[in-house]
């Protein structure tokens, strides 16, 4: 996708450009295969990288890789979102309460509630956002 910043491709969140690697995982039933989330997305120096794995009218599933001290500043989302730690760990404050999410951990971020992502070091997470009530 194109952004307003110098024609670079990426996802713009909180006025920060997130680079996007690859494309959606195959949605064709004949292309279904097991994927290793840890290796599906690589860290990039001083960047937050994302790869949308699924996107449809019901919601989306996005894999993120945060390098070092890169993170997301406090913001809200219009829908509930589930974070699943894939690699490393991060502190995720939700409404002022800090939660530590590590590999294999899951955390629900309720719709409309302020939250942020502060990796302790490199951190990979799967974000599942479901549109609806």
As a whole number of angstroms, the C-alpha radius of gyration is 14 Å
Structural class by helix and strand composition:
mainly beta
* Beta-strand share of residues: over 45%
Helix content: under 10%
The largest sheet, given as strand count, sense and whether it forms a barrel, is: 9 strands, mixed
Overall mean pLDDT stands at 82
Low-pLDDT stretches: 1-24
Number of helices: 1
Query: What's the SSE pattern?
Result: EEHEEEEEEE
Number of strands: 9
Please report the distance between the alpha carbons of the first and last residues: 28 Å
- Choose one word for the global shape: globular
Written overview of the protein:
The chain is mainly beta and 133 residues long. It is 3% helix and 52% strand. It has one helix and nine strands, in the order ββαβββββββ. It has one helix spanning 37-40, and strands at residues 11-13, 16-20, 48-56, 59-66, 72-75, 81-94, 97-102, 106-109, 115-130. Strands 1, 2, 3, 4, 5, 6, 7, 8 and 9 form a nine-stranded mixed β-sheet that branches. The longest helix has 4 residues, at 37-40. It is globular. It starts with 10 loop residues before the first strand and ends with a strand.
Which labels suit this protein?
nine-stranded mixed β-sheet, disordered N terminus, mainly beta, 3% helix, globular, 133 residues
């Amino acid at each position: 996708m194109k952004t307003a910043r110098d024609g670079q491709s990426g996802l713009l969140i909180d006025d920060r450009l997130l680079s996007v690697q690859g494309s959606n995982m195959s949605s064709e039933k004949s292309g279904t295969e097991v994927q290793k989330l840890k290796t599906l997305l690589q860290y990039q120096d001083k960047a937050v990288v994302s790869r949308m794995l699924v996107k449809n009218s019901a919601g989306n599933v996005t894999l993120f890789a945060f390098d070092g001290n890169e993170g997301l500043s406090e913001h809200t989302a219009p829908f509930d979102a589930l974070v699943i730690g894939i690699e490393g760990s991060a502190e995720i404050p939700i409404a002022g309460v800090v939660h530590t999410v590590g590999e294999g951990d899951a955390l629900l971020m309720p719709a409309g509630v302020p939250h942020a992502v502060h990796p302790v070091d490199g951190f990979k997470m799967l974000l599942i956002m479901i549109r609806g009530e």
